[in-house]
Design goal:
Strand content: 15-25%
Largest sheet: 4 strands, mixed
Helix content: 10-25%
Distance between the termini: 29 Å
Order of helices and strands: HEEEHE
Shape: globular
Bound molecules: zinc ion
Oligomer: single chain
Radius of gyration: 12 Å
Length: 75
């Protein structure tokens, strides 16, 4: 489609630790295997780190083709 996809960035050690420990870190992470993005503290199972990309905004995650997780982005 010629659309530029911004893949996000891999989590740093500190960001990954915050994510897995469910700290209140400002982390918005997308999981490539499921095609959804979550925020820190999502009740879903912690994904494999190698499949995780971080984004700064929901808009950028959606621009990359990810959908919002229904469990942590309740409308
Ligand atoms: Zn979620």
């Amino acid at each position: 489609m010629g659309k530029i996809v911004i893949p996000g960035r891999p989590p740093s050690d500190g960001e990954w630790q915050a994510l897995t420990l469910r700290h209140a870190a400002p982390v918005l992470y997308a999981v490539r295997t499921t095609g959804i993005y979550c925020r820190d503290g999502c009740p879903a199972r912690t994904p494999n780190r190698k499949n995780v990309s971080l984004f700064d905004t929901r808009a950028s995650a959606e621009a990359a083709g990810f959908r919002a997780c229904k469990r942590c982005w309740t409308v």
